[in-house]
Structures are given as C-alpha cells and as structure tokens.
C-alpha cells in the first residue's frame, strides 16, 4: 500500500461523512437552495486565491524541477479558476463584484486558508504537500460521486459537470504520485507530520461544506 493509499484508508470514515453531508446530497439532487450555493461560491473564490498562494510556496520548496513546474502550474490554475467563477457562475447566479468584495471570509474559510498558508510556509516540502492534498483528492472524489448521482434537470448541472474533467483527475493522480515519492524518501517523523497535516485539511474540507450549508458567518457581525 502506498503512503497516500494509507492516508485514504485511515480517513475513510471522514470521507464518507463528507459524501453524506446534506450540502453534497442536495447539490446532487438539485434541491440545494440558491442561497447556500451562492454562499459556497463566494467563499470558494476567496479560498482559491489563498490556495494558489499556498501552492506557489510549495512550488518554491520543491526538491526537483518537475515539482516546481507541477505546483506553479497548479497555483496558476487555482487563480484562473477563481477568475472563471467571477466571469461565469457568479454572474449567472446574480453575484456582483461588489457582493464578492464586501463579503468577508467566513470563520471556516479563514481557518482553512490560514492553516494552508501557515503549513506551506512553516513546514517541510513533504508536509506542505500533504496539507494541500485533500483539496485535490477529496474534492475530486466528492465531485465524481456528485456527478454520478446528479438528477435530471439539476439547476446546478453546469457546475456539477466541472467535476467530470479528466484533466483535473489526471492532475490529482500526478499530485498523489509526487507525494508518494517524497513520502518514500522521508523519515518516520516527517511521515507522521504528513499524516497529521492531511487529516487536518480533510477535516477543514468537511467544515467548508458544512459552513456553506449553515450559511455561517462571524457570530459577532
């Protein structure tokens, strides 16, 4: 069993909880409220910029030139996707540039992005990558499941279809291969830190969807 396969197996229950979350069940059924979807899109756009920054830091720490290219390209793609949200889905769902600019990060989004940036800056290259992996892998697998279960006439079908991109799934497989390689060369203490970073990010993935479903915001605002 590879290192990443071990991570997946160790966190299988959390992944299943993510699949079973009402946000994802209702998105597949097409019954998710527009308000919850809009909340998610705005926070996702905020998240993608921070994720791109964290990926760029990982690229700078890469142990091989191929890693520099791989994660610099991933950072670029994250920011490009954030721009596409503004030009596509946000426009389609009535979210103006002003709406986005005046909506702060929720506690869950702030927590997740702050962790990713701190982990990428302060930890070693292998641990930085492990913290970044859930957004690639869990998002891809949840998306595959939603796409397979999407109901006819789903008002979110265009969004759901973005999960089916073979290009994205190929990129995920490449990231997994890189992490397995660096894990094979790491000592046991580093591998433990990698597993901890993965678990923390996986929990924050769940919290991100839950925050959107609850339409959460800062309790003091």
TrEMBL record:
<comment type="similarity">
    <text>Belongs to the TenA family.</text>
</comment>
<dbReference type="GO" id="GO:0009228">
    <property type="term" value="P:thiamine biosynthetic process"/>
</dbReference>
<dbReference type="InterPro" id="IPR004305">
    <property type="entry name" value="Thiaminase-2/PQQC"/>
</dbReference>
<dbReference type="InterPro" id="IPR050967">
    <property type="entry name" value="Thiamine_Salvage_TenA"/>
</dbReference>
<comment type="function">
    <text>Catalyzes an amino-pyrimidine hydrolysis reaction at the C5' of the pyrimidine moiety of thiamine compounds, a reaction that is part of a thiamine salvage pathway. Thus, catalyzes the conversion of 4-amino-5-aminomethyl-2-methylpyrimidine to 4-amino-5-hydroxymethyl-2-methylpyrimidine (HMP).</text>
</comment>
<dbReference type="Pfam" id="PF03070">
    <property type="entry name" value="TENA_THI-4"/>
</dbReference>
<comment type="pathway">
    <text>Cofactor biosynthesis; thiamine diphosphate biosynthesis.</text>
</comment>
<protein>
    <recommendedName>
        <fullName>Aminopyrimidine aminohydrolase</fullName>
        <ecNumber>3.5.99.2</ecNumber>
    </recommendedName>
</protein>
<dbReference type="GO" id="GO:0005829">
    <property type="term" value="C:cytosol"/>
</dbReference>
<feature type="domain" description="Thiaminase-2/PQQC">
    <location>
        <begin position="9"/>
        <end position="214"/>
    </location>
</feature>
<dbReference type="InterPro" id="IPR027574">
    <property type="entry name" value="Thiaminase_II"/>
</dbReference>
<feature type="active site" description="Proton donor">
    <location>
        <position position="205"/>
    </location>
</feature>
<keyword id="KW-0378">Hydrolase</keyword>
<dbReference type="InterPro" id="IPR026285">
    <property type="entry name" value="TenA_E"/>
</dbReference>
<dbReference type="GO" id="GO:0009229">
    <property type="term" value="P:thiamine diphosphate biosynthetic process"/>
</dbReference>
<keyword id="KW-0784">Thiamine biosynthesis</keyword>
<dbReference type="InterPro" id="IPR016084">
    <property type="entry name" value="Haem_Oase-like_multi-hlx"/>
</dbReference>
<dbReference type="GO" id="GO:0050334">
    <property type="term" value="F:thiaminase activity"/>
</dbReference>
């Amino acid at each position: 069993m590879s290192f990443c396969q071990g991570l997946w197996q160790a966190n299988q229950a959390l992944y299943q909880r993510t699949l079973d979350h009402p946000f994802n069940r209702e998105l597949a059924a097409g019954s998710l409220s527009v308000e919850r979807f809009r909340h998610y899109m705005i926070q996702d756009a905020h998240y993608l910029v921070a994720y791109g920054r964290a990926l760029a830091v990982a690229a700078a720490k890469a142990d091989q030139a191929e890693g520099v290219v791989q994660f610099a390209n991933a950072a670029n793609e994250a920011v490009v996707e954030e721009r596409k949200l503004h030009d596509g889905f946000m426009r389609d769902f009535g979210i103006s540039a002003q709406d986005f600019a005046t909506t702060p990060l929720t506690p869950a989004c702030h927590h997740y992005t702050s962790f990713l940036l701190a982990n990428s800056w302060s930890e070693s290259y292998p641990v930085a990558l492990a913290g970044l992996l859930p957004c690639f892998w869990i998002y891809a697998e949840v998306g595959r499941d939603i796409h397979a279960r999407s109901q006819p006439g789903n008002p979110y079908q265009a969004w759901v279809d973005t999960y089916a991109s073979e290009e994205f799934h190929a990129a995920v497989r490449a990231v997994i291969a890189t992490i397995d390689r660096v894990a094979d060369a790491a000592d046991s203490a580093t591998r433990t830190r990698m597993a901890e970073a993965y678990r923390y990010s996986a929990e924050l993935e769940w919290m991100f969807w839950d925050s959107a479903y609850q339409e959460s915001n800062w309790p003091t605002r």
